[in-house]
Each structure stands twice: as structure tokens, then as C-alpha cells.
Amino acid sequence: MIYRLLLFLCIAASCFAQTATRALTILHCNDLHARFLPDSRNLGGFAEYATVIRRETAGCQSCIVMNAGDLVQGSPVSTIFRGVPVYQVANKLGIQVSTLGNHEFDYGWQTILKFFQIAKFPTVSANVVDDSGKLLARHPYLIKKVNGIRVAVIGAVMGNLVSNYLTADIAGPWHALPVVETVQKYVDEIGDRADLIVVLGHIEPAERLDILRKVPKVAVVVTGHRHRGLDKAEVVDGRVGVEAKAYGVELGRLDMQVDVARRSVASWDWKKIPVDSRTVKGAPDVKKVIDKWEAKVSRIVDVPIGESKREIAGAELKLLMERAMADEMHADFSYMNQGGVRDRLPKGKLLARAVWNIMPFDNKMVLGKFKGSQLSSALTRGRTVDPGREYIVTMSDFSADNESERKLLGITGLQFETKTVLLRDLLINWIKKKGTLD
What we know:
CATH architecture of the largest domain: 4-Layer Sandwich
Strand order of the largest sheet: 5-6-8-9-11-10
Structural class: alpha/beta
CATH topology of the largest domain: Purple Acid Phosphatase, chain A, domain 2
Shape: globular
CATH superfamily of the largest domain: Metallo-dependent phosphatases
Helix content: 25-40%
Number of domains: 2
Largest sheet: 6 strands, mixed
Strand content: 25-35%
């Protein structure tokens, strides 16, 4: 009798151990930036991305698909039609929960309300509020049951949203609360209603690490923003932070066993799945919608403007843009923020589309005339100036108006005159004049 009882208890304990953990897979993307088409290296593309997501989620009862912000801004379709087509196509990607990125604001905060209406998936954002504390998004978080696990997803955007990334006119009445404190507030509110808490954030790397270190009830942090992604997951005491590369060149997949009783991750494995149009066929239904929108902009952007003898990217492309700005604006000094350089110039025949991808923003050029004594080393960069001589300085209105850029450049208090020429048009015209870039 005692033997049978012990046997029963052992079997019961074994069954409990087997059912105490449940599988959960988070498929995640970030910073897709409206790149409907594969790039010059045949990577990415929304139709191809849809194929990969559908393949990974087929028959998967433990999967949830998340987007960590910046769906829009980065291609001619998005710029010309102010992000609307991007959300229409994103509805076909299988996203189940999304959060705001800083570039969702680029067409003015009111357009975000239109995005909410178009999206068939919920957008959560806990820390974008007005002065009264009202949230811009409808919900700060959601709780979704996946494979029997109550998964809470809290949305967040970087705390320096306005000072570092937005101008006052597009931010409107909204600002971002500190990330960690806000996450903690909603973790406390969620309480026992969730078995696993995830932060879905378009945030700075330091904020991701702070959440992992300072909010122990958050088990997973899925982020976007820095574009280069993570080479390996960030781990603090068994809590996991992940981020994929930008522009849809890869899909993140985080496979976990969740200890429901302890509300923690018992084990995990993270991998990044490449999206290569040479091996992945784009989903026909997604491609059909994309083709419709691309046809609307092709006559504007798919026109030849010159040729490049080699690929130009990164810091070298920034310098080339500054050279074009100085030449076209007849300036002594020019400045281009590296973060505003959104793509690379490909080798070979150049279409206007390449410049639209590099500079998707409708940034205008500004000019200022200042004495040499007023110019900081951040602007002159080693060049000798005469303190009493007047110099012409040019940059985009974003750099001239943005608080963090003004501090970086030492131009606080200096006034610029706005010109009507767009930086993008300036670059196209400069390349046309050059003909061939060496």
C-alpha cells in the first residue's frame, strides 16, 4: 500500500514537472522602415518577410509575432503617402502586437491616430503622454493567452524621444516618461494577472539593460531602434533581451520554455532568420499590394541620375553628402548627422530611388552666417578659422532645430535661415551635375 502511494506521488510529481513549463515562441521584427522591396544585396522585402513569418508560424500554437516600432519612414512610398500604405501592407505580416517608434511621429503626431485606425493589430505604448498624463496609445499593455500562458506585453519608447529625435511641431503635446519607472508602474499594475511579462520597446540599449537589471519581474525585453541589432542575446539573471537587425533583413525567433509557476523563463534559444530574396519567394498577396503602391511612385524615383564606380556607405557617404551640401549651398561649412544617412549608394547606375532611400525625410536646408568666433570645433573639425571673419554654415532643418544636435554642434542661440530646397533634391541635383562618382 505504501509502495503504491509512493509510486502515485512520484508519477504525480513527474506529471507536474512536465506541465510546469510551457513552450512560447516570440517572433520579432523592428525598424522595417517601409522597405517594401529587397535592397541592392537582395535582402529584405515585405513580401519576402511575410513568407518567412508565415513559414515560422505555420501550425505553431505557441507563437506570438511582435513588432518593436519604426514601421514607417525609409522609402519613397512611405514619404510620399505619409506612411499609410505601410500599415496597410503590415496588416499582412501577421503582427499580433506592436509598439511605437520615434519615426511613427515623422508625419506629425496626428498621423499616428490614422495608423491606429488602419492597423488590424494593437499598438501598446506606456510612456508617451501629454501634460495631463493621457496616453497617446489606447493601451499601455495587453495580456494575451498563448499556449496557455498569460503573456503581458508592455510597450515603451525611448525616454529622450522629444529632445533627441523630434521637433516640437511633430511631437505636439506629447512627451515620453522615463522608461524604467514607467515599466515598473505597469508591472505592479499587472500583478498576478500574467504568467510572463515582456517589454516591447523602441528604446536605447542602456534602457533595455536597465529594465533587465532593475525590473526583475520582466522576463523578456524585445527591442528595436539601433538598426544593427544584437549579435547575441543580452542576459541578466536568466532574463533575456533581444533585438534583430533593421530593414527586414532578418526575423528574430526566441524559443522559450516558460516556468508558469515561477513566472520566469526556464530555458531559451534565440536565433535570427535571414530574409534573402534569392532563396525566399515573396508572398503573392503581399507582393500584389506592394506592386500597386510602387507603381504610383516609380515614375518619380526610378529615373537615372548618374553612376557610381563603387558602393559608398557609412561615414564616407556622410562626408560625400556634406560635400554636396557645401557645393550646392555655397557654404564654407556643412554638417550632416550620421543617423540621418539611411542607406548606401550602390555601385553602378544610380536611380533617384537610391537617394530617396538614403534621405527619406523631407528635411529642408538652412543657412547661417556667423563669425569664426561663434563656430565650435564640432563644426569646423580642425579647420583654422579667422575669429573676425564671417562664414556660411549649412545643414538640415532637423539638425538646426533639434535640441540634442544643437548642443552637440555648439549652435545653441545661433539662428539659421530656412531655404525651400529639400536635402534630398539637393543630393539628386548634385549627382546629376557630377555624372559619375569615383
